[in-house]
Amino acid sequence: MRKSSSPPWKSICSFRNQLLALLGEPFEVIATLQSWHNEAGTFIANAHEFFHFKDNPVSWTKVVWEKWSLPRYNFILWLAVLGKLGTRDRLTFLSNESLCTLCSKDDESHAHLFFSCD
What we know:
Number of strands: 0
Mean pLDDT: 82
Strand content: under 5%
Structural class: mainly alpha
Helix content: 40-55%
Largest sheet: none
Distance between the termini: 60 Å
């Protein structure tokens, strides 16, 4: 593939390389592509199902993604469960200040905000 190749061609080549990496042999790739075409559903749906990462479901998913809750609250709770909130301990590259803005007693962190902050 050349640098000057079109984006669709680059995508096709990338797709081919991913299939070769997963399946190993070219004849396996061809057989898989043919099965996606012949099976029920669309080709795209079958390809998505093949590449879709299937992980074990987490125990907190029903609590975080409640249907009655506002999406912004769901999103904040999701970040909190993952420990990815933008607390000062995670944003040290922006400022040297690390004290909690609510209590000014301890460093602001995920654990401090939810479990020990007054």
